[in-house]
Amino acid sequence: MLKIGVLASGRGSNFQAMIDEGKADNLKVSIECLITDTPACYAIKRAEENGIPAFYINPDDYKTKDLYYHKIAYELKSSGVGLVLLAGFMRVVRKPLLDAYPMRIMNVHPSLLPAFRGLDAQKQALDFGVKVAGCTVHFVDEGVDTGPIIIQAAVSVIQGDNAESLSDRILKLEHKIYPYAVKLFSEGRLRVEGRTVVIKGGVDNNGFLTNPPV
Ligand code: GAR
Question: Which CATH number fits domain 107-214: 3.30.565.10, 3.40.50.300, 3.40.50.170, 2.10.25.10?
Answer without folding.
Answer: 3.40.50.170
